[in-house]
Amino acid sequence: MRTIYRSIFLISLLLIGCSKSDDIENELNNGNYPIKQQVGYSANDILSNKNFTDIYIEVMYVEGFKPSAETLTNLEDFIESRTYKTNIVIEERLINISTKSIYSMDDVRSIEDANRSVFSFENQLTISALFLNGKSSSDTEKTTILGTSYRNTSFVIFEETIQEGSNDIFEPSKVTLESTVILHEFCHLLGLVNLGSRMVTNHEDPEHSAHCSNENCLMYYLIESGQMPPWMRSEQIPELDANCINDLRANGGK
Ligand SMILES: [Zn+2]
Ligand SMILES: [Zn+2]
Fold first, then answer.
1. Which ligand is nearest to the CA of 240?
2. Ligand 2 center to residue 192 CA distance, Å?
3. Which residues, in sequence order, are bridge partners of residue 56?
4. Which of 15-19, 63-67, 162-166 has the highest average model confidence (pLDDT)?
5. 183 alpha carbon to ligand 1 midpoint, in Å?
6. Sheet containing 54-61, strands listed edge to edge, beginning at the edge strand earlier in sequence
7. How many angstroms is it from 219 CA to the middle of ligand 2?
8. Please, what is the average pLDDT of the chain?
9. Is the pLDDT of residue 192 over 90?
């Protein structure tokens, strides 16, 4: 009998950056929407149609690490099902950067700053989604970072790590793994868990902040070693549980 020791972790580091609480009420739609606030800051703006009716996702990828079209369709469907956005646009763009084999979060922020080209304006809120080669500098022997949401409208996906952890025997398909990670990161931007969307019922994992205590939920913080979590054996993308959905609804979502 063979034992598979490969470990894949769905982990997101929530980098709580310094944030300044500006009085921006009147500047939301004039191009000055803040993009360097902490994760969860824009939850209501993404969920509701109060300040923005439309959403634009700028997908920037490094050559060879473009996300699957099916994954982006899954993201679009998810946004449609959980937010009140009328128009959802997802566009992909190849970026030319001097690639590294390991990226720190400072590197990731710099890449966004140098390449992001679409900003919230008038009725459209924008999100920056980076797809990189290489790996996260936070990877260890035991944990592998697949994605990280790091600012109020920004997340990064370590696409090479996803490719390495998928489409092999005992591994999920690339689309399943990729979709799972993207939706998980996007949900952090929606303020889950207890990260900008107030909890209706307490369900935050006491040991892993900003994650759900339900192990079947999309927002579960998965740590495993030597044992595959149930969803990874199947082709099914985990869904949000009732507690997480209730939090989104209470903060302007569906
Ligand atoms: Zn997470
Ligand atoms: Zn949940």
1. 2
2. 8
3. 89, 126
4. 63-67
5. 10
6. 87-94, 54-61, 124-132, 154-158, 147-151
7. 5
8. 87
9. yes
- Residues contacting 168, CB < 8 A, separation 6+: none
Q: What residues does the ion ligand 1 have nearby, CB within 5 Å?
A: 12
* Amino acid in position 165: G
**How far, in Å, from the CA of 136 to the mean position of ligand 1?**
15
Report CA(188)–ligand 1 centroid distance (Å): 7
Distance 152 CA to ligand 1 centre (A): 14
Cα–Cα dist 2/191, whole Å: 41
Domains annotated on the chain, with CATH: 27-250 (3.40.390.10)
Q: For the residues 221-248, what does the mean pLDDT come to? A: 72
| The pair of three-digit structure tokens given for residue 249, joined into one six-digit string | 């609804």
Q: Average pLDDT, stretch 112-127?
A: 97
The answer to whether 132 and 146 have CB atoms below 8 angstroms apart is: no
Token code pair at residue 54: 């439309």
